[in-house]
Amino acid sequence: MKILWFEVTSPSRYNSNKLPIAGWQDALENLVLTNNEIELYVSFESKGKLVEKKVDRVTYLPFNIEYSRSELKQNDWKYDIYEKKIVEASLEIVKKVQPDLIHVFGNEWPYGLIAENIEIPVVIHIQGSIIPYFNANYPPGYNYLTICKYQLLSLRKCFRMYKAYKRNQSRVAMEYRVWKAVHFYMGRTCWDKSLVKTLSPNSLYYHIDEALREQFMKTKRKWNFKKDGKIRLITTGMSTFWKGPDMLLKTAHILKVLGVDFEWNVIGLLHSDIKNIIEKKEGLEFSNNNVYILGMKQADELIDLLCQSTFYVHTAYIDNSPNSICEAQYLGLPVISTHVGGIETLLENGQNGILVPANDPWRMAYEIINLSQNDDLILEYSSRSMACARNRHNPQKILSDLIKSYKDIIYQYNADK
Q: What are 361's strand-pairing partners?
């Protein structure tokens, strides 16, 4: 089978680096390489020099998007220009490759719209969805006026945020059209399946679990419970309001007021504007509440930090199947998370972890304290979540399910002609 992937980031194999930008897609690519049935092509938008090359049996086809000055200005306000250029460039790639099937990662981008113009089956591998994400655009108690207020009424920043808001409105409209154009979807949670059945009810859904980064699959390290009186919390990814940085700060403050001995490490980037808005709105500072923003970490460094932690805590307002939870579970680190999106597929409350209502920092703080005082339950959650994750992320099963899905999609598409 000749399979063409459209990704929204540059693959690490192409870049010859190990940056964790789209780790699960790189991991899935590694699995596909072990199967001789698939001839894999990967295309993506590149900001740098265009170099088509073949690495380890994968043919990489980057492309550039160029804009006129007027198009750049329009692109700040709406998705239309970007959509048109992505679809045009993608159709040229399809024409060049002539694949048996096209596999698109994410329906939040315009790639799926090529299905309107070709007679080749297109399947979208669901990542998230801008439609429900936009519905949860701001945390409770926040809105556009709040953001402007705590930007000290900076006209430049407020105007920039307003443009981004309008552009996302346009993006939502684009995604509705993607759901209408594509009739095959891959997902892995109750949440993304519900999106398919409501936004594209006549489509076929294939369950494909997420491939984890090779470093996590091959490490011999496992989480071991070490009790020394201090609770060490860790969270990965705070790049947007959707991820709940305000919830994290409020939870940390409650723990501090209660006199809990803890530290909370945050891996990844927290934009200075988001950080400043939250701190001014809440009247609190992350650094004064034992929260430490550690920045990006390579996989090996992250594994060490996870294994040194007491719990992994997820505070998002909307999410599908965060890699961060899956990777923590794979190492055996107990997880406490908000009950949003597809997380209940990964985490069964009271069985292998704890689910907390979104925007309830008091309950989150209580569950952190309560679990820290129950050694037996900590060990039970660790054992059960590790067993669950290692079964869910079994690479042979994931590859087998993917190949079967490819074959069935091609069959179903041809049968419907």
A: none
